[in-house]
Amino acid sequence: MNTRIQFLTILVLVAALLQGCAVTGSLAKRPASLGPDNGTLIIVGGGGMPKVIFDRFFEAAGGRDAKLVVVPSAGTKATYDDSDRSVKMFEAAGATNVHLLHTRDPKEADTDEFVAMLSDAKAVWFAGGRQWRLADSYLNTKTEAAFHAVLNRGGVIGGSSAGATIQGSYLVRGAPEGNHIMMSPGHEEGFGFLRNSAIDQHLLARKRENDLLPVIRRHPQLLGVGIDEATAIVVKGRTAEVIGKSKVLFYDLALEKTLGEKFYITLDPGDRYDLKTRRELPAK
Q1: How far apart are CA 96 and CA 63, in angstroms?
Q2: pTM of the model
């Protein structure tokens, strides 16, 4: 090997080493992926809603008589009323105090009059649709602050499909052009109830298990959470518990050295995950 080739080879090796050190350093310094300090998240992967999900949602709210505010704004309609299917779904499940909150105007969402309904709410539910509509309506408004306040006083926030993804800090599939686009500049911020995370849904049902991999490669500090249909995670602080019928995948780039290109682990109903250490917890 001549001197020039040796020199180029050394440069390539040094560059690879520096890149590896940079990734390792960024992973070591990454912020924790945690749920709310108070309150509970119920994050559902779309599809059906098994009884156990309703039961855990109502339990976290304080019962079926607790004030529940349904937000259908991920849907396509300009206006909604109490005949909305999400309202009827909860009433059919036994809820007695269901209210609807909706706007397409972030200026309206930033008024005291609009957020008044949330002042004493014990529970909020985000219905399915497209998550960018929720972000466009409520992100960085008094309404978003009021959502966080529900958790701060010990309430529960839940949502399915788009209502799951919006709960992460990084918004995947946020492009108005189509939900096949995983990363869309201008629509990459969620409400961050589950901090330092990216949440995907309909995972196995739509064969999406590899879709979060490039997102986590681009943003290695994030914890990826992929939830299949009729399945949910119940998040309290640093713990996520899987409930429902199928599986949840947790994506962590730090696992790449041991797991290879598909750096995720799979949890089943009843399994628990420590969001802070990013490890499965022992069985109870």
Answers
A1: 10
A2: 0.90
